[in-house]
Each structure stands twice: as C-alpha cells, then as structure tokens.
Design brief:
Elements: E1 10-14, H1 18-30, E2 34-38, H2 41-48, E3 55-59, H3 67-77, E4 82-87, H4 98-103, E5 108-111, H5 116-129
Parallel strand pairs: 1-2, 1-3, 3-4, 4-5
Helix pairs in contact: 2-3
Length: 132
C-alpha cells in the first residue's frame, strides 16, 4: 500500500530494539514521514513535552517504561496524539497485551512481526478518521 502523507506526518517511534526501530524509521522516512526514535516510554514522554507529534508508534515490552505505561501516559497528557501499539509478545509473559493497550487508549494495535504495508494501512485509517 502506498499511503499518502496526511495529517499524521510527525511520528515518534518508541522501541527498545535498535534494529527494529532503525528499520521502521528508515522505511517511514522514505515515505515522507518525519520520524524520531527513542528506546523507551520515559524518553518518549520527554520528547513529547518539547516536540509536536501527530502519531506515536510504541512497542509494548520495553525496559524503563513499557508500552502499556506509555499508552496510558500519552493519552492522559496528550489526548490528541494518535497511538499505534505494537507487540511481538514477551518471552517472560505468555499474554497478548495488545487488547489491554487498546483498552487503555491505543487507537490501533499491530502484532509483530508486521509488514510495513500493515503499518501504513493503520496510519491511513487513522488519517481518514481525522478527515485526511
């Protein structure tokens, strides 16, 4: 899917895996998104306090501040920002946390491993909902 850049052009990507974050960041930037990547929710919230962001894409299982805490904090402090929560599960917990992320305010969820077309489709859906 070749999504056009709409209202959700400034993206904060939160993922503690540098390889995953780097790959997503590169692909999104090549499609015209402005993307900043950080390794945990605490750094993400710090970034949000100083930079305009339209969309947060966050992993769930991270050290320091996980994605569930991040979704909750972003929705409380920045309710206008759209959130996509992603998870490939955890080796420590046999639980699908994506329904919980959705319940706490994530606008969309995405199971990893995911294809870039799936992510672009979710971004396009959110943009359309906003009138883009």
């Amino acid at each position: 899917m070749n999504a056009k850049i709409g209202r959700l052009k400034n993206v904060l990507l939160i993922d503690d895996d540098p390889a995953v974050a780097g790959a997503w960041q590169t692909v999104l930037q090549r499609r015209g998104f402005q993307v900043h990547a950080v390794s945990n929710g605490k750094l993400g919230l710090r970034w949000l306090e100083t930079q305009p962001v339209d969309l947060v894409i966050t992993d769930i299982y991270m050290d320091v501040m996980d994605g569930i805490e991040t979704v909750t904090a972003v929705k409380k402090q920045f309710p206008h920002i759209k959130i996509i929560a992603m998870s490939g599960g955890s080796r420590l917990v046999n639980m699908d946390s994506l329904p919980l992320a959705k319940m706490l305010g994530a606008d969309r969820t995405l199971a990893k491993p995911a294809d870039i077309s799936e992510l672009l489709e979710l971004i396009a859906e959110l943009d359309k909902e906003m009138g883009g």
